User: Fold these one by one.
Assistant:
Number 1:
Amino acid sequence: MTAAGPLITSHNPADPDDVLLRTPAPGAFETVGAVERAHAAQPEWLSGGAAARSAALGAVADGLHAAREELAALAVREVGKPLAEARAEVARAVAIWRYYAQAPYEPVGAVHEAAAGPGLLLSRRRPHGVAGLITPWNFPFAIPSWKAAPALAAGNTVVLKPAPEATACGLRLAEIVRQALPAGVFTVVPGGATEGNALVSAADVVSFTGSTVVGSAVARTAMARGVPVQAEMGGLNAAIVLPDADIERAAAHIAAAVAGYAGQKCTATSRVIAVGAALDPLRTALADALRAVPVGDPADAATVCGPLIDERARDRTVDTRHGLSVLAGGTVPDQPGWYATPTLVEKVPPGHPLLREEVFGPLAVLLPADDLAHAVRITNSVPYGLVTSVHTADLNTALEGLDRLDTGMVRINAPSTGVDFHLPFGGTKESSIGQREQGRAALEFYTSSRTYTLSPT
Ligand code: NAD
């Protein structure tokens, strides 16, 4: 066990001199201690009953709703999320807690006749114990909520480790959630890899969201312990545009999915595939739409594309376009903060990193395809498989896309970004490991089935 670790520092990405917080990382020993305290609190949280858990989750929703403007402003300041999106994220978090507040009343199993003779067979879902949650910085309220709320509803207790870049958001969330819950039921441990590792080594179920490199390692460690694990990771999402699509509308949707929150969403569009005659009008419409995206101060309610999370992310976005044919953007505005303008490139040579690696910035590549089958092959050719958007006026084409695309989600005539929290969320290949998140799928993940046999004496 190691002692308390180095300082966690979080900056305002729009004004790097504005330091929100400097706090020592608690270290592995303290993290494991938090899991032990959560263990001690779990039996009473479960035995307290459905009504108590439901009321507590409802009270969390009320607490978050009451603090919604303050929380949105904190997300603006700490992770550079444009105000309109930050407000929408907090509203989504509130809705998630309300949705799962009903879950404790849901059935938890089934009753079967015995195969032979009298007696009853019961299957009943039970919580695992302590859920260890590891989250990224880009949705500092919604992602912790969509993991914690179903875990708690099912009778687990929770230890959450937010990303270091979103520590202030995580600690404020903890204050609000804890007001509604008994002691030890929900704990936030700030920190980085050391604390994350310690959590994976001690929790009874692990849910991770973040990069593919870290998620794969987390999943391996948890699996080696025989602990259920899910990891939601990166994406390299495509938008397919057919010649029959409303090109202006498709361009508007795609521009929002490329540039919204500076492209820092796992569901952002980074490849735009124009089929046949769609190429020329789409090139013009999309370049125009990206140039028109409001870039600037995330505290301004009109901003769509704010700063990137840090200098490295900004440089990665801008450097990637070198040597490529740039149709829009690719510049760094002359102002403090880690900004890059929304960028569209084309004529990217085969094997270029842009065609296989996530940039996580406001940048997309335009690719031509001969027909839908070719577009589907390009879409499916990457190691990721999170979400695809298809833009067409033809229902047959849409249905063909649904059948042949190998991504976990397909959105027809809608941006690739924006998901509904009451349906399963996740992808294929290197985008996801394990069971889906959100909706009823989450309640299954945070429980395991027990089979009981009741025989007459
Ligand atoms: P990251 O992988 O760097 O960090 C994610 C979390 O893992 C953080 O809390 C971090 O402190 C922790 N961590 C780092 N090393 C660890 C270790 N060795 N053991 C345990 N925990 C460790 O990701 P990020 O930069 O915070 O987020 C960006 C990434 O997240 C992008 O790749 C994006 O696509 C992905 N993402 C995916 C989804 C999804 O649902 N698929 C949603 C949002 C973001």
Note: The chain has two domains: 7-233+431-454, 237-412.
Number 2:
Amino acid sequence: MAFRATLLTLYPEMFPGHLGHSLAGRALERGQWSLDAVQIRDFAEDKHRTVDDTPAGGGAGMVLRADILSRAIDHVSRDDGRPRLLMSPRGRPLSQARVREIAAGPGAVIVCGRFEGVDQRVIDARALEEVSIGDYILSGGEPAALTLLDAVVRILPGVMGNALSGVHESFEGGLLEHPHYTRPQVFEERDIPAVLTSGNHGAIERWRRAEAERLTRERRPDLLSQPVTK
Ligand code: SAH
């Protein structure tokens, strides 16, 4: 069974978005994964199809109602083994390790929040896993869901043309990736590092490894103190 993504959103027209293009788009056309964007509003019961209400306790903004969102969730996910994710700045920061786990499974049900967020009771009652894509606030969960799916889809079997690319990437070995160079040999008086054109594969590997370690030490020392996830 191909990886199956179901999105719950107030803006289904935002999908597949950029995932309809390039490698992910071709894989979608070939049926190597599927995407279904479901309108949360279809589960409202009043004639204005209202999905939100004012926050209990007062304050600015609106909150997505638990009864409507839970109906939408129940409609699309019935113990099918897919994780139920809620895009949320309060969630666990998304990592390449979690991306790999999700990609290895049958798919994902992804709730996209809007307004101030969703009623806590639906998060608790449906055991939604809150996932953040970083320490900043978006206006809605849709771009966050597209980001998560982008990371997942590109590592599904058969999606990336060259199976080897992806092996040495940032985070895969607990390090940031080494720098890349290509022709021309000289660009604005800057040469490609000589070792890369030496033909000495052992030396090239060692240089890349040293550069990856240097960059990680300089930019992301926090990664060096984490257990390697491979
Ligand atoms: N009031 C909330 C923010 C709501 S932003 C708070 O302060 O925590 C509206 C919606 O955008 C959220 O429900 C969530 O689905 C999405 N969103 C915003 N920032 C996000 C982030 N960094 N990662 C994942 N989803 C995010």
Note: The helical segments are 22-29, 66-76, 96-104, 120-125, 142-153, 201-219, 221-224.
